[in-house]
């Protein structure tokens, strides 16, 4: 709440917010399980002509992952690519995790394989998410 309040104060006082301020507010939304507020902030950025970066996308994806909104995670992942921003290990790990938690085990494993094809080394989060996806399928057993 404090991060969002400060962001509103910045606007009210006539100052321009940048991508760093929005990213910080999005991270706060993710930590506070406020995925809808995160998506509204993400849209607000675009309406104000502020281009998101990888950190911004990852924060929005994280907020949606924690809320088990894998459809929104996929939409953000695709939008990120359309904006010519390359996903990183965090993007993939969050996406794989969201898909695994959402019962989309095949998509989760597809993203895990894609991650490796893109020469992005999986971290513990990505491996754990892929293993979790396997738990939900008969394919990996």
Write up this protein.
This protein has helices at residues 2-12, 19-31, 35-47, 54-66, 70-82, 89-101, 105-117, 124-135. The protein is mostly helical and 141 residues long. The mean pLDDT is 90. It starts with a helix and ends in a 6-residue tail after the last helix. Helix content is 72%, strand content 0%. The chain is built from eight helices and no strands.
Task: Describe the structure concisely.
With 141 residues, this protein is mainly alpha-helical.
Mean pLDDT: 90
- Which spans have pLDDT < 50 for at least 5 consecutive residues? none
Look at the helices and sheets and give the structural class: mainly alpha
Report how far apart the termini are: 43 Å
Question: Got a strand count?
Answer: 0
Total of DSSP H or I helical runs spanning 4+ residues: 8
Q: Given the C-alpha coordinates, what overall shape results?
A: elongated
Strand content: under 5%
Gyration radius from CA atoms, angstroms = 16 Å
Q: Helix share of residues?
A: over 70%
The main sheet comes to:
none
Helices and strands, in N-to-C order? HHHHHHHH
Question: What order do the helices and strands come in, and which of them pair?
Answer:
Elements: H1 2-12, H2 19-31, H3 35-47, H4 54-66, H5 70-82, H6 89-101, H7 105-117, H8 124-135
Helix pairs in contact: 2-3, 2-4, 3-4, 4-5, 4-6, 5-6, 6-7, 6-8, 7-8
Protein traits:
about 140 residues; mainly alpha; 8 helices; about 70% helix
